[in-house]
Design a protein that fits this description.
Distance between the termini: 78 Å
Radius of gyration: 25 Å
CATH superfamily: Aldehyde Dehydrogenase, Chain A, domain 2
Oligomer: single chain
Structural class: alpha+beta
Strand content: 5-15%
Strand order of the largest sheet: 1-4
Number of strands: 4
Shape: elongated
Number of domains: 1
Largest sheet: 2 strands, antiparallel
CATH topology: Aldehyde Dehydrogenase, Chain A, domain 2
């Protein structure tokens, strides 16, 4: 490609949207590319944009399968509720071992 605009147009004209990479020393070019390409994963100065295990993997356009972009940690957050439980257990007089409870009297 001769220009950044041509590269973005090439990526966006593809019916699939898994991922793409760009190699550049320009932060401005990298920012423009990452915001304007229509793909699920963008690699900047890396050859293959592979998600780390704690990121969701998802494609766009014809590469997407299913009805939600929810995989991995994001899916767990979507389908679950957070609950905080604070407990205190009292041991009876006949328990074995050290008594590590706090006595409140």
């Amino acid at each position: 490609m001769e220009t950044l605009e041509e590269a973005i147009s090439l990526v966006n004209s593809n019916p699939y949207g898994n991922g793409t990479s760009i190699f550049t020393a320009s932060g401005r070019t990298a920012r423009k590319y990452r915001h304007e390409v229509e793909v699920g994963q963008v690699g900047i100065n890396i050859p293959i944009p592979v998600p780390l295990p704690f990121f969701s993997f998802t494609g766009w356009k014809g590469s997407f399968y299913g009805d939600l972009h929810a995989y991995g940690k994001q899916a767990v957050r979507f389908y679950t509720e957070t609950k905080t439980v604070t407990e205190r257990w009292f041991q009876g007089e006949d328990s074995e071992g050290a008594n590590l409870t706090i006595k409140l009297e």
